[in-house]
Amino acid sequence: MERGLLELHLHAESFLFVERELFTSKTLVKLTLSAGYDFEAERVFLPALKSLYLLTDSGIDYDNHCRLLDGCPALEELFIRDADHDCPPCCGSVVKSASIKRLVVLVNLPNKRDSHDYAYFEAPSLVYLDYSSYVYETYQIVGLDSLVEARLSLKIWDYYDYNYDYEYDDESGDGYYSSDDEGRSYCYSYVDDERKEPIFGDVTNLLAGVTNITTLHLSPDSLEAFYFCCKSMPVFNKLLNLFIESNKDKGWQGMPLLLKSCPILHTLVFKGLVHRVTNKCGDACACIPKKEKRENEKKKRKIVEKQLSCLWTCQVKVLEISKYDGSFQELKQMGHLLGKLGCLESVKVGVHADNNTEFLQANLLALPRLSSKCNNIQFS
């Protein structure tokens, strides 16, 4: 450390405890702690450090984590992997730094739900955030006003033998959601009206803290987390580019409210269109009926409500689709998007090379388009 090192990577295949009274270097620019390291130091001072990678499997306790970040006044890049260990989350739960501009956090501790009670992020210089985690019970977000781009992968917790994600969808259709006086969401069964365990986690404050972004990337899990774990969707007044990854096992329940909350959205990009069909995709999806029946009494509730389109008011000018295979569901969804996005000017579709490209192109080109400015579809 005292010989002018610029880069240091500490890696241990088995657990190794590192304890130092002083952890200092005037020259170190990049530091990585990976695998089995646990770190403890009474004082940290790394004035030249620009990049810090905390990739430990065992975790670093809260006090040492804070001392480490406080001792890096010039830090610009912080990468945290808080996963594959039996300790409660730490490094990925609290990040406070005045200097970091790029933050990547992965928290993957599926057996530690009770430890995901609180997450805190304070980074006034941050411009890029990549955050992947099971949802926390609550978030506190401070000073992310400089944030420009965010990539979110928010996962709902698994609930023993009960699946919250699809208790009320086109395939099961035997449950409905309600909430108590404190706003916590519950699911009931039409069969026995038994209230299940409340859905754990609330991403409301997290989303409210990143509303200044212009670009947002979402995983398939995130749309479900938005629907089940967000009390109030904030308005993304600056969002121009929205990237959504789809998965056949994940629904689009959060899509309608999200699109309505992006008043100046310019570019909408889908990585795949195939998703799980649910009664909550709204008119963002072509796969559900336009009328929806729900029982409104304890045993018999029946409300017929017409779904209003979240696409008609969408200002999207550029629509991009990748991983397009031309299935019936995909073609139907493309027709739905082209027939309701009235401001479209450009459409780009990425077709898998092993498909009958000419046939797929002909089907897409034959679809009617609401926008008079959308004169062509580009293929790649």
UniProtKB/TrEMBL annotation:
InterPro entries: FBD (IPR006566), FBL60-like (IPR055294). It comes from the Eukaryota. Residues 309-380 form the FBD domain. This is FBD domain. It comes from Arabidopsis thaliana x Arabidopsis arenosa. The lineage of its organism: Eukaryota, Viridiplantae, Streptophyta, Embryophyta, Tracheophyta.
